[in-house]
Design goal:
Blueprint: H1 9-16, H2 20-27, H3 31-40, H4 45-51, H5 56-74, H6 77-81, H7 85-100, H8 104-114, H9 120-138, H10 144-166, H11 174-197, H12 207-215
Helix pairs in contact: 1-4, 2-3, 2-8, 3-4, 5-7, 5-9, 7-9, 7-11, 9-10, 10-11
Length: 219
């Protein structure tokens, strides 16, 4: 009996997640990678297929969800609270980069798959999930338009930084970290500008206030 045979399917998925990218780097996000990952964790190949029935996108989804969990584990709320918001976002993105950096070929193949027209919706969903998770861990409580605009901005930062990572040959990924710092600075400047341009409620025209002042002029 294989070691992983007594795991539930959810537990098996969790066990397979960190093993998949190492195999996908050689075999691509295909059945061969799933079979190899199953062997690596002591699971039956057919049971692994039952746990991950959706093919390449399901495998990539599982890996990215694993990165989400790693990020939350390495940056718990008490650690993040001690940082400025800018530093929280930088730390969260950095943890993700460090998690995927050893598997850059698997990442390259994953992004290529998600860029295909038939997988565009799945790619957008996974990107949004990552951005939303980062903002929530950072303590963001924005609602309405700011909620969506922040996530879109971070999605742009994260996506472009992943692309920078793929071509980075600098020591300790120095170029990627510098690129990330510049992009976050750009986003923070935009957020500050948006806050400055946001209308002051006390300065908005109010018919009621205007008529009141006509009746009771300010001395």
């Amino acid at each position: 009996m294989d070691v992983a045979d007594d795991l539930t399917l959810d537990e098996l998925r969790a066990a397979l997640a960190p093993a998949l990218p190492a195999e996908a780097a050689f075999d691509g996000w295909r059945d061969a990678a799933l079979v190899a990952a199953a062997a690596a964790v002591g699971a039956d190949a057919d049971r692994a297929r039952l746990a991950i029935p959706g093919g390449p996108v399901d495998m990539i989804d599982l890996w990215f969800a694993h990165v989400d969990r790693l990020m939350a584990e390495q940056l718990p709320p008490d650690r993040l609270r001690a940082m400025r918001m800018r530093d929280r976002i930088a730390a969260l993105v950095t943890v993700r980069l460090e998690a995927v950096a050893p598997y850059r070929e698997a990442l390259r193949r994953a992004l290529s798959i998600l860029a295909m027209p038939q997988h565009a919706a799945a790619g957008a969903r996974l990107g949004w999930r990552a951005a939303d998770h980062m903002w929530r861990l950072a303590g963001d409580t924005a609602t309405g338009f700011p909620h969506y605009s922040k996530r879109l901005s971070l999605l742009g930062v994260y996506g472009s930084t992943l692309l920078a990572l793929l071509g980075d040959e600098s020591e300790a990924l120095a170029d990627t970290h510098a690129f990330l710092a510049r992009r976050i600075d750009d986003v923070m400047r935009i957020e500050i500008l948006k806050a400055q341009l946001r209308p002051d409620r006390d300065r908005r025209f109010s018919v009621t206030r205007f008529l009141g002042r006509m009746r009771y002029p300010v001395a």
